[in-house]
Amino acid sequence: MTGNADTDSMVTLSLAEAQSLSQRVLEHHGLSAADAAAVSRTIVAGQRDDCQSHGLYRLLVCAHTLRSGKVVTDAVPNITSPAPAVVRADARGGYAQPAFEAALPLFVDKARTHGLAAMALTDCVHFSALWPEVEAVVAHGLVVLCCTPSHAWVAPAGGTKPLFGTNPLAFGWPRPGDTPFVFDFATSGVARGEIELHRRAGKTLGEGWAIGSDGQPTTDAEAALAGAMLTFGGHKGSALSLMIELIAGPLIGDMTSAESMAFDDGAGASPRGGVLFLALDPAGFLGAAAAEHLQRAEQLFDAITGMGARLPSQRRYAARARTAVEGMKVPKGLYEDVLALLK
Fold first, then answer.
1. Of 40, 53, 238, 313, which is the active-site residue?
2. Of the listed 22, 32, 40, 54, which one is catalytic?
3. Residue 6: what pLDDT?
4. What topology is assigned to 4-68+314-340 in CATH?
């Protein structure tokens, strides 16, 4: 593997180099080769799209989780169909990615057969963004919604103690070409990884991101990590976060964020719980008219970009095209921390 430090203290890696590095680190910490490959694909996708908080930085998180014993390193997913339009992918305590990849073909088939389908990805360790899974479903021409709880890091609106997770919500819509409309955002003001990166860099947090252990607003990352994050949009983000707790927790028989935190028992590992996917097939609703109505959606997208507004994911897609040619930029300090995981 090669890496070249530039004048900005960055290291440039190719996609292949990043995948190899990630695979080596994960296997070094006990993850099976097949699972390491699946997890690495998600990590590299984050770095490829210049999502620093969801890229190679996550190897530090994964290594700690593996050392803690909070993830099953050789889990074999169990894929079942408890109802005609429902898939249950039991990860059996392993990482989410191998179970998702194993269940995806059945999930797609059910959505096409019935017009819509749900998939409950359960008993899994999920540490990353949702958009890689969303893009994988949308690639089959399906519309998809996805959400998951995490650890109890976030206070509900009006509260002072962490109860909810960052609880991301993601959506995908197929478009002509290879760049679907996708959004993926935490219902907290920012992702947990952003606060961790601010702490590492000694940077001040934005206003409204967090409160300290005393319940008062703070812009100090250390104080925020000891206190609680806040939802975006006050009571609106709080209600969405609670919805996600319910439909990706009790509805699918898995943990809430508070239960995940209790299971962690101070280990500081990645959250363990469930992920809910809902897929809708345009052809199931519209038949032969699907193409016509999907084109109407293109008119809406064009109207948005035509007035100078940006669609979600456009920054990621631009970074993806750039890194395919120039390679991926990784902060030198982070790169060295990742290499240290191999010792």
1. 53
2. 54
3. 45
4. Hypothetical Oxidoreductase Yiak; Chain: A, domain 1 (1.10.1530)
Nearest to 279 by CA among 184, 137, 178, 89: 137
Q: Is the pLDDT of residue 4 over 60?
A: no
pLDDT in tens, 265-285: 999 999 999 999 999 999 999
pLDDT above 80: residue 2: no
Tell me the fold of 78-189+231-287: Ribosomal Protein S8; Chain: A, domain 1 (3.30.1370)
Beta strands in the chain (DSSP E): 4-5, 10-13, 78-83, 86-90, 116-125, 143-147, 154-155, 169-173, 181-185, 210-211, 217-218, 228-230, 272-280, 328-331
**Structural domain boundaries of the chain?**
4-68+314-340, 78-189+231-287
Mark whether 54 is an active-site residue.
yes
Structure tokens at 308: 């100078």
Identity at 335, one-letter amino acid code: Y
What's the pLDDT at 8? 58
Q: Is residue 135 annotated as part of the catalytic site, yes or no?
A: no
